[in-house]
């Protein structure tokens, strides 16, 4: 079955796929970025069907496939197999053969797509992306955002299991993974210098506007 795809900004599309955790439907967001060259960056692997691949390739030339954190290896092999000819990028230490995201971004991304590793988290190594033309920040597990349309069980699991008192919020596991607080804070400061207003999370609802203020609030101590 073809997964629904919708355009969320110029040259930016979102596919939502199901993903369950502890019985909660947390979903999986796949973001497709089309560069000025017509080449595509596919952010996050998934159990793509041939119909999904066809829908993506109708947008442009699939050139890069990305997993942005060590935690996103669930569908890495199956997703990678559906795009065998593209360059596959993931953090160093990823369990599937890839090229490192820690290397300088491809020259074709210059001026359109920036990438930054959140330092100080060696077990996570999440990389955040900034699509400059649409002012959109794209994250994996840095932030969760389950609104009123999420099931009561999903919100319960993230309230008591992940320690998120309000959404959008940062999970307990993510916070506990920080080993070098200074390095992490320095990365966050660099991220907050980006001029973003929208935010795509790996699990949950898009933040359509005011993302900077909401992300800043999520980092506040009372959100822990």
Order of helices and strands: EEEEEEHEHEEEEEEHHHEEH
Biggest pleated-sheet summary: 7 strands, mixed
Question: How many DSSP helices?
Answer: 6
Strand content: 25-35%
Determine and state the CATH class.
Answer: Alpha Beta
* Helical residues, percent: 10-25%
How far is the first residue's CA from the last residue's CA?
39 Å
Tell me the number of strands: 15
Write out the CATH superfamily name.
Ribonuclease Z/Hydroxyacylglutathione hydrolase-like
The number of domains is 1
CATH architecture name: 4-Layer Sandwich
Low-confidence stretches: none
Helix-and-strand structural type = alpha/beta
Name the overall outline.
Answer: globular
Radius of gyration: 16 Å
The CATH topology is Metallo-beta-lactamase, Chain A
Strand order of the largest sheet: 1-2-5-6-7-8-9
Q: Mean pLDDT score, rounded?
A: 89
């Amino acid at each position: 079955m073809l997964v629904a795809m919708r355009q969320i900004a110029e040259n930016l599309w979102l596919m939502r796929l199901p993903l369950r955790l502890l019985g909660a439907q947390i979903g999986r967001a796949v973001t497709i970025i089309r560069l000025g060259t017509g080449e595509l960056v596919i952010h996050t692997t998934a159990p793509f069907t041939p119909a999904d691949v066809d829908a993506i390739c109708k947008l442009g030339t699939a050139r890069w496939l990305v997993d942005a954190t060590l935690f996103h290896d669930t569908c890495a092999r199956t997703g990678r197999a559906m795009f065998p000819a593209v360059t596959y990028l993931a953090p160093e230490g990823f369990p599937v053969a890839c090229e490192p995201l820690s290397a300088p971004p491809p020259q074709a991304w210059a001026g359109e797509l920036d990438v930054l590793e959140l330092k100080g988290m060696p077990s996570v190594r999440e990389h955040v992306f900034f699509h400059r033309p649409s002012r959109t920040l794209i994250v994996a597990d840095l932030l969760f955002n389950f609104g009123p349309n999420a099931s009561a069980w999903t919100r319960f699991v993230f309230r008591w299991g992940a320690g998120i008192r309000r959404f959008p919020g940062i999970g307990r596991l993510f916070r506990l993974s920080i080993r070098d607080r200074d390095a992490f804070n320095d990365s966050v400061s660099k991220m907050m210098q980006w001029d973003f207003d929208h935010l795509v999370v790996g699990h949950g609802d898009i933040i359509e506007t005011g993302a900077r203020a909401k992300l800043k609030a999520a980092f506040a101590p009372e959100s822990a």
